[in-house]
Amino acid sequence: MVAEAPLGQKLLFGYTWLTMGLYLLLIVTLLKARRSIRSFQTPYYTLFLLQAVADFHIFLVLELVLRPRKFNYFNAFSKNMHVFAVFSYFDITFAKAALGCGHMVISFNRVTAFNNPLTYENIWSPTTILSSVLLLWTVAAMTSLPYLLIFNEGIFFLLLNNGIIQLYASNAATTYDGIVSVTINTVVIIFCSTCYILSWRKARNALKKKEVPNLVHRLKRVAVHIDDRPAFAKLTCHMPLYSAAAFSCRPRM
């Protein structure tokens, strides 16, 4: 029995695929721009692209795993698919956790960019970026493992009278899910908010104390002294707090 998707679900389906198509176009454009524009080669944009992996993962889980199962597309699903039910529960919880953890990495990246502009790229080396992302994705997977190892017998599909195949879980599984979700969301909100507030305060204080023109002037004098104007251009290009102010006095390449 195939369930009829309500109009709201159909509109949401169209809107979701449209927006993710635009998102994909943005990613492709960014990847092309990274070949020639150095500003797009900074660690921040590398993290942005890695976060896009998590974004598309949760999108594909929703659109290719959960929605087709719920409305039984092509009559390809049944309530007896226990392994698929457990996998679905694990995958969606992992995707949500990985998405939140990714925002924490990006927010911490912004703090270091504002507070350590000259050593920013050394701090966020490719090894650091890859290690931090893999670590947080591993944490997200570890928090979801109990659905595979402990609560797997309590996760199942239930066929409703209207043909919808609903995913259900035992009280223990839903309680654990609630605790993990609240914990992760709270940590992400507090951590990211703190990082962005610190970044904003650093930027505001720097502008009030006129640190921007002073630092740019010192960098320019050093670059001219050592006859290394390309080095000055590289420094100013990768300082997110100072790049706008430095643009007017950046040497032409």
Automatic annotation (TrEMBL):
Pfam families: 7TM_GPCR_Srv. Coiled coil: none annotated. SUPFAM superfamilies: Family A G protein-coupled receptor-like. It is a multi-pass membrane protein. The chain crosses the membrane at residues 12-31, 43-62, 83-108, 128-148, 179-200. GO terms for cellular component: membrane. It comes from Ancylostoma ceylanicum. It comes from the Eukaryota. This is G-protein coupled receptors family 1 profile domain-containing protein. It is found in: Membrane. Its main location: membrane. Residues 21-253 form the G-protein coupled receptors family 1 profile domain. Keywords: Membrane, Transmembrane, Transmembrane helix. The keyword Transferase does not apply.
